[in-house]
Amino acid sequence: MRTGGRLRRRAALIGSVWALTCVSVHPASADVTDYLGRTVTEVRFELEGADVRDAALASLLQVRVGQPLDLAAVRETLGHLFTLGRYEDIQVRASLEGGGVAVVFDLVPLHRVQALEFQGPLVLDPPLLRAAITDRLGPTPAVGRAGDAAVILEDLHRDHGYRQATVSARSRIDHRPDRTTLIFDVMPGAPTRVGTVTVEGERVAPAAVLQALNLGRNDVFRQLDLDQALARYRGELQDRGYYEARANYLPRFSADELTVDLTIVVDTGPLVRLRFEGDPLPEDERAALAPIARERSADEDLLEDAKRRIENRLQALGYRDALAEYRRDQFGDVLTIVFTITRGPLHRLERLEIVGSSMAPELQALVRLREGEPFVESILAVDVAGMLELYLRRGFAGVAIDTMVSSTEGVDARSRLVTATISVTEGERTVIGRVTFEGNSGIDETTLRSVAGLAAGQPFYEPETNLAADALVIEYADRGYQNATVQRTIAYSEDRGTVDVAFRISEGVQVIVDQILIAGNTRTSSEIVARELTFRSGDPLGQSAIVESQRRLGALGLFRRIQITPVRHPGEEGRQDVLVTIEEAPATTIGGGGGPEGGRRLRRSADGSGVAEERIEFGARGFFEIGRRNLWGKNRSINLFGRVSLRPRGESVAEPGAGEDSDRERFNEYRVLLTYREPRIFGTIADGQLSGVLEQGIRSSFNFTRRVTSFEVGRRLTPGSSVSGRYSLEQTQLFDERPDLEDRLTIDRLFPEVRLSAVSSTFIRDTRFDPLEPVQGMFATVDTTLAARAIGSEVGFVKTLLKGFLYRQLPRSDRLVLAGGATLGLAHGFPRGVNTDAGLQIVEDLPASERFYAGGDTTVRGFALDRLGTEETIDDSGFPTGGHALVVLNAELRARVWRDIGAVGFLDVGNVFALVSDVDPSRLRGSVGFGIRYRSPIGPIRVDLGFKLSRFDFPTGQVLDDGMPETRLEPLTALHVSLGQAF
After folding, report:
1. N or C: which end of the chain has fewer CB within 10 A?
2. From CA 478, how far away is CA 510, in angstroms rounded?
3. What single string gives the DSSP state of each residue in 429-472?
4. Mean pLDDT, the chain, as a whole number?
5. What is the pTM of this model?
6. What is the pLDDT of residues 718-743, one digit of tens each?
7. What homologous superfamily is domain 113-187 in, according to CATH?
8. Which helix (H) or strand (E) holds 425?
């Protein structure tokens, strides 16, 4: 028979999770001393009566089989378990068994709120009710906030006209999974309706006001709607120039609040006009310098700001004494803001001298003002500040720099000549003498010197010593010394030529990680979370390790929220648990979008000659994507992506052999991509990805279908760089080939359907802040592919593609971005003999689907898709055949014009060459152009118009009277409409 007792502990996770409120023992037939000190024979977890076998929980046990039962170990285990935040209560049972003691931790789960339900005669949509709660209390409000949630819903109903609404809350506990559902019983009551409406105010028509507010008698009184309508009405008045317009309302509710009488008070204020007098101010700058219309206001603060802007702008042009005074002139209902501009004489720099300096050439290099140019005092002040900073960094702590500016009359009374003298008093130069450290024992002095970065003989610059002290504190914090302090003292020599720097260090106690506790994960395994942590149990608890761990967990893309919190042991300074709390993101993601695309494409001419003819074509493109991440809790993911393009009737892609003139209207381009991703494949640091692609597409010279299966292994080297290797098996079939049979390359005639087995390697460097619309950073990639018959390919080749793009936001502007790019492609085919009816033929080219092409919206935009090439890569009918070498250079200036509208100017240069040996920079062709960008919710919509810098003659298929073939000059322009930036 088993005799037993119970150790019961109830704790609230408020303040310290180690608060042990009650520990008691109730033996059935044995004293407590019969349990304590006895050997533990078994330790188990139970959850609502069922045994729990969880390695993560077992790792938190301090009560161990084979060791004596110790009350301190029980308390410590309870503390670890409560820190997880998963359990409402934990009871510990102990029972004698075979001369030892069996210990059971009975876990009472904390049923978190994971669902919200609304019951009753609902008048508001449940998504609106749910959003009101989650916006204020978060996606999973605590049960204790149910009353607050009910008040939020009552306020929401009041705002929508149901002022008598009552909401009560209750909870329902569900099991498997353990969760709580909050149920809200909603009784909206009768709505409040509008009674009488009175409009007060001068210069307003009551009927027009009521029409603008869409407000009438017996309407439901929705306060939010009325507030928004009044805001729109005020905006309309301000758009008409009544910048001081006001519109409000006064409600008077009946005793039962079922009726409300409204008084709408409108004060239009005066009609505001802006006028400039005195000296001229550039027309195109007036709106920005005095933004009264843009801000729709004429208050004193705005006018003072405008005054300063105008004066600063004129002073920046060299009008040193410029003044901009303003006044208010009101006549009747019109208020005129009048700015009187007095530019004063134009000051030009005649001479600038630097005296008293031993570093005059270096100081002169810092001066941006030039003789003969307008003199701007603010620029000189910035230059002098730079000189002072240079002296301080060189060790001249007592340096003084004075500026004297004098002016004389210029060629007339409207101009002045300025002489500026910069006078330097250098003082003594101070260098660092000794650098000493006191109080360090946990970190050796050699490491501290390296971290501080100070050495004897260096110029003494006091801010650098402060930075050194901060660096030492950070180093100590990274090694677990969370309370370390560093005091810096300096001591000058008598002649102030040297200074000794001493760092007095108080290290404190080094904190070591005890247990790592992971909470909040329901789908994600704790192993996945622990794998991304850069610290382990027994390591020093460093701040950088916590930050890096948080970054790595965020990079997984699995979690909505991540928090890493150290938890102190009571009475133990040297050891702390680390609680990793996560909130998982939805496992399923769905996305989609669409937009227009268009541009010039090559088609056979309609006159039957078969030559290439450029046509402007437009179509619609859409995409859909659905993904499931964190499969089986192991951060695996699967993703399905589909993209289709719909073209107008008469431009569809026919089935093989159906001819190009099919008039069926259908989706004639598509791409379906299925990917499965396995992080840390085979237990390595690399990620694996298995992909399948099915696509059909249009090129200028052919249409194609392709089926690809590939397996890729890659790893991230740094946050901005990665490398990968890939094997792919691909089957590509060409059809509807535009060039005549005799003009097609041998490989295209012999292999209209080709199987390619290839291995590839890719290196990517990406430091862009925003891949969709980058303004800073760079993107570079190197991709090399080898296809060989030895691994199952029908033809062999080696191919390398290098791309590099650079993005820079121009200084002193948040609206201008300069983007540049370069693309270089090189390929070589391996010879293969093919027996045909005509005998043995040698194939050395790449298949058409693998050759390089240029021209279009992402390469050289003055040309239609694939239209760019040398004579060797374009056949007699004008269709491109592609080549083994590609060179493309791009430059683009992007400007944000207004809100989501932008404009670009671009220069593109490039060409396609038949062989690598044919590459010749003198044969590159270029285009210039401009475009418009609209930043839509689905991405940038782009319209570009490119102009060729030189044009070729192409045959028309007709013969002239003299027997020579007729030619036509290729079009000057090419229009492109698409989604996303060009690069």
Report:
1. N
2. 10
3. --EEEEEEEES--SS-HHHHHHHH---TTSBP-HHHHHHHHHHH
4. 85
5. 0.66
6. 888 999 999 999 999 988 887 777 77
7. membrane protein fhac (3.10.20.310)
8. strand 415-425
